[in-house]
Amino acid sequence: MARITASAYTSHIPAIGAALDLGKTHEPYWQPVFRGYEFSRQWLKDHRPDVIFLVFNDHATAFSLDMIPTFAIGTAAEFQPADEGWGPRPVPKVIGHPELASHIAQSVIQQDFDLTIVNKMDVDHGLTVPLSLMCGAQDPVNGAWPCPVIPFAVNVVQYPVPSGQRCFNLGQAIRRAVESFDADLNVQIWGTGGMSHQLQGPRAGLINKEFDSAFLDQLIAEPAALAKKPHIDYVREAGSEGIELVMWLIARGAMTDVAGGKPPHVAHRFYHVPASNTAVGHLILENS
Questions:
Q1: Which has the closest alpha carbon to 54: 4, 92, 114?
Q2: What is the CATH number of the domain that holds 119?
Q3: Which residues, 6 or more positions from 67, have their beta carbon under 8 angstroms from its beta carbon?
Q4: 125 is catalytic
Q5: Are 207 and 278 in contact (CB under 8 A)?
C-alpha cells in the first residue's frame, strides 16, 4: 500500500520566491532564511518521496473572490506556475499524480468531506515557494521538481474558513485514503502558510514570536489539543493572515501517531524573523 512517511511545514512568503529568482539569497538580509533550509534540501534528497501532497492556499489566481472552494484537490497531469501580476515565476511546471489524486478524492469524499475536484489550475507562490525552499533553485526549462505533486488548496482568504478541528480531521481522512491506494508509494504531506503575520490595517507587520514558538511546540506534542484552538485566537495573537496555520493541521493530522502510532521524530525545526515583515517557520516530522 501507499504510505505517508513524513510531513513538512513551511511558510510560503512570496518575497522569498523573488529573492530566489533574482539571485538575492546571499544578501545579508536573506542569508539567515536560506541557511535554515540547507538541512531540508539535503534531507529531501536523502528521503525523496514518490509523491508530495502539498497543502496551500491560492491567492486569488486560480480562484477569484467570485468562487472560492473550501477544499480543492488538483487532479490534473500538470500545473503551470501562475502569473500573479508580474509574470509567472521562472520555475518548472508541476507534474501531478492524477491516479493518486483521484483516489484520494474518491476516498475522502466517501468519508464525508466535500472536495472540489480541479482538473485545470495554475499554482501560485503558495505552492511554488515551498518547493523552491525544499528543493533549491530549478531551471525553468530543463529542470524538474524531484517528484509529482498533488496540489490541495484550502480557503483561508475569505471567511468563513475551515476550523482547525476540521482540518485536523481531514488530515486523518487523507492518511486513510493514501493507505488504501493499491501501489507501493512513499508519500510526503506538506502544510504551508503562516506563521504570524498581518498584511493590512493598524497591526500590519505584526509578528508574535511567543505564539509561533508555542504553536510549533504544540503541533509536535499536542496536535489534538491544538486542533481545538478557535479562529479568534489565531487572528488576535498571530494576525489576520496567521489563520493560514490551520493548513498545517491537515498535514499533522495525517501522521500515524494520531491514529495510535508512535510519536514522530523531529528531523528539523527552524524559525526566523523577519522576512518581508513576516515570520518564517519550518518543521520536518518523520513517522516512526
A1: 4
A2: 3.40.830.10
A3: none
A4: yes
A5: yes
Looking at the DSSP assignment, which residues form a beta bridge with residue 190?
8, 54
pLDDT digits (tens, 9 = 90+) for 59-108: 999 998 899 999 999 999 999 999 998 899 999 999 999 999 999 999 99
Sign of CA dihedral 247, 220, 195, 193: negative
Return the pLDDT at 142: 87
- Kind and range of the H or E run holding 133: helix 125-135
- The answer to whether residue 270 scores a pLDDT higher than 90 is yes
β-bridge partners, 78: 95
C-alpha R_g of the chain = 17
Q: How many residues does the chain have?
A: 288
Cell numbers standing for residue 268? 528539523
Phi, psi at residue 59, to the nearest 5°? -110, 60
Give the active site residue among 12, 97, 103, 197: 197
Please give the single-letter amino acid code of residue 125.
H
From 278, 283, 197, 274, select the one nearest 30 (Cα to Cα).
274
Query: Residues 270, 261: contact at Cβ < 8 Å?
Result: no
Catalytic residue among 12, 103, 125, 282: 125
C-alpha cell at 20: 530566489
- Its domain, for residue 161, covers 3-286
Predicted TM-score of the model (pTM): 0.97
Catalytic residue at 282? no
Cell numbers 502539498 label which residue? 54
- Please report which confidence band the pLDDT of residue 212 belongs to, taking 50, 70 and 90 as the band edges: very high
Q: How many domains does the chain have?
A: 1
